[in-house]
Amino acid sequence: MNRLLLLAAAALLVSAASAQAAGITGQYIEARTCDVWTGPCFANAEMNLGGKHAVLGWKVEKGELDDVKLDGLGVVAVVAASDTLGLKQTGQSKAVLIVDSRATPAQKAALIKLAKKEGGELTANVVGVESAKVDLEICACEGNGCATLKAGPAKIETRCLDAKHDKICGNESAFYPPLAKDVNVRAAYAVQHSFTGKGVDETWNDAGRRGAYLGSFTIK
User: Fold this and answer.
1) Range of 156's domain?
2) How confident is the model at residue 57 (pLDDT cuts 50, 70, 90)?
3) How large is the average pLDDT for residues 146-155?
4) Which of 27, 29, 63, 176 is most buried (CB neighbours < 10 A)?
């Protein structure tokens, strides 16, 4: 009996280890064309006038999807929505995916699946897939808000928010939730946020806005 119990316990440990090894962890960043760290007075003034465009980026540190290892690879979603992101959408969004050029065909398919899963409705309607090197780096700084993303025509650069000098309404907080699932993020200031490519029928350069999130993601 004791031997059977030991074998059962060992099997459970192996199963748990396998599930953990199949999980995916990594870095995440997003920026959009409206403030996310803001007070209700300022947010209400932007609703359905701005904030309909965003760039979302994932860089896998470790993990696999569909038995495909994705360590070190990234994927970016460029989104154009019908309404301000964070509000109920009255139309279908469009998304262009930029997949890491270092990925194999199997890894490319897995990264596309990752972006569609984590982006939900915003990445359900993929109108184009491009290939480019995806560089996402979250830098060490005092407020943990410094990062850069470079992925072909999509770019983000952030800095820490200054609780004193970046306030406008005086009641700022993280007004809109992040756009992706399974993330643990903090708000940041988007020094640069641009998309100069094709596919969503629009380009933008939205520098100098309290409109970014960065941090990590975990898919179990």
Assistant:
1) 25-219
2) very high
3) 98
4) 29
Q: Let me know if residue 6 belongs to a domain.
A: no
In a domain, 1, yes or no: no
Count of domains for the chain: 1
Cβ atoms of 208 and 33 within 8 Å: the answer is no
Residue of 163, 152, 159 lying closest to 189 (CA atoms): 159
- Residue 20 token pair: 């953990």
Does 15 reside within a domain? no
> Which H helix or E strand runs over 65?
strand 64-65
pLDDT tens for 120-137 read 999 999 999 999 999 999
Question: Is 14 a member of any domain?
Answer: no
Q: Please enumerate in sequence order all residues whose Cβ is within 8 A of that of 155, keeping only pairs 6 or more positions apart, or say none.
A: 55, 148, 149, 192, 193, 194, 195
Q: How far is 128 from 110, CA to CA, in rounded Å?
A: 16
Q: What pTM does this model have?
A: 0.86
Ordered DSSP codes for 79-123: EE-SS-BTBPPSS--EEEEEEETT--HHHHHHHHHHHHHHHGGGG
